[in-house]
Amino acid sequence: MKPLPTALALALTAAIVAPSGARAQNAPTVVEYRQGLMQAFRTHMGGVGAALTDAAPVGHAEHHAVAFDRMAQALANVFPEGSTGGRALPAIWSDRDDFMDKVTDIQTATARLVTASRTGDAEQIGTAMQGVRQTCSGCHGTYRGPAN
Ligand code: HEC
Description:
Layout: H1 6-17, H2 20-26, H3 30-51, H4 60-74, H5 91-94, H6 96-117, H7 122-143
Helix pairs in contact: 3-4, 4-6, 6-7
The site of heme C (HEC) has 22 residues, from α3, α6 and α7.
């Protein structure tokens, strides 16, 4: 590959290393980001549900399950120390080990959902989906405060 002209290379570098202005304006805060992640959980739960009806091809269950599982992996890092706010309760940080167990619970459940989704069998997918749903309430009951 031909080396990039210096000016272009510098402009590209600047675009990569200096997005702080754009980030401040457009990117979510840590609280907004994790709330968005929760909304993604809801979206993919709905997507799997749709794939079990005529609303979407059954093959879409796997697309949603895989995305769901990746989001569950991301969940481990969206409550950093000191990131209070939203409906997050202080116990998230004071009972850290138990909270992380709840994170592991949903990761285990979404991994099962991925396996089930690959069978294309509605009953297995439905059962795995139930397992995932229980992990939502299993965490919310202790670690999510009431809606304002
Ligand atoms: C390990 C704990 C945990 C698990 C598991 C979990 N949640 Fe949450 N969820 C929270 C917490 C804490 C909040 C509040 C976050 C905040 O406001 O900062 C929340 C907030 C939400 C919200 C509100 C987001 C908003 O826009 O304010 C939705 C919707 C939600 N969760 C859906 C789900 C669904 C669906 C699942 C299961 C598939 C799930 N959550 C699993 C802890 C969890």
